[in-house]
Design brief:
This protein is mostly helical. The chain contains 9 helices and no strands. Keywords: Transcription, Transcription regulation.
């Protein structure tokens, strides 16, 4: 049977949640994440983990997808600047959380998933960005619906998400959340507005 990343509710969902929690607990405690260690902490037979995920790389990817990959609600302040400021502030706080930070670092260090892996098994790194990309696209779509000029989602990832994650991963000191996010947002919103100005005048 081909394994999948998610399954419907019931016992399988509870087991998956327990396994994800076990991974996060081990990472936060600074302990090695191995299939036997995760199985012991989650109270699951190691054979079940090997059958479901195959190896630690895929297990980390699945945990990252579960933790970061949900789209969730996005801010609705009435402006693109306000939405990005609110969302970016939450992103900074999330990246500073011990469990999230440990998972991000583990995702970066994890070996790439075998290209021949079953569909749905993404690399741990890409899994960390799935939900962020979805949220960014939702924010930009809402701004466009209000008639605002918007940057591309790639620019938001490059100028807002990437710097936040980079600083968190390397433990770099940062200015206050408000200052950091405002600077990043100005680089995103101001250029988009400036590019729209000539066409508006024309």
């Amino acid at each position: 049977m081909t394994p999948t990343m998610t399954r419907p509710g019931g016992r399988s969902a509870k087991v998956t949640a327990a396994v994800h929690h076990a991974v996060l607990d081990l990472l936060t405690a600074g302990e090695a994440v191995t299939i036997p260690a995760v199985a012991a902490r989650a109270g699951v037979n190691p054979t079940s983990l090997y059958r479901r995920w195959g190896d630690v790389g895929r297990l980390l990817a699945d945990t990252a997808l579960a933790r970061f990959g949900t789209s969730g609600d996005v801010p609705d302040t009435g402006s693109l600047t306000g939405d990005l400021l609110a969302w970016g502030t939450a992103l900074v706080a999330e990246a500073a959380h011990p469990a999230e930070l440990a998972l991000l670092r583990a995702a970066v260090a994890a070996e790439p998933v075998d290209p021949g892996a079953p569909e749905g098994f993404e690399s741990a790194c890409s899994a960390c960005l799935v939900g962020r990309s979805t949220q960014v696209e939702a924010i930009l779509a809402a701004a466009q619906a209000r008639g605002e000029e918007v940057p591309t989602s790639t620019r938001v990832l490059d100028h807002l998400v990437a710097p936040v994650y980079l600083r968190a991963l390397f433990g770099l000191p940062a200015p206050s959340v408000e200052v950091l996010v405002e600077l990043l947002v100005e680089r995103l919103v101001a250029p988009a507005t400036a590019q729209a100005a000539p066409s508006a005048l024309g």
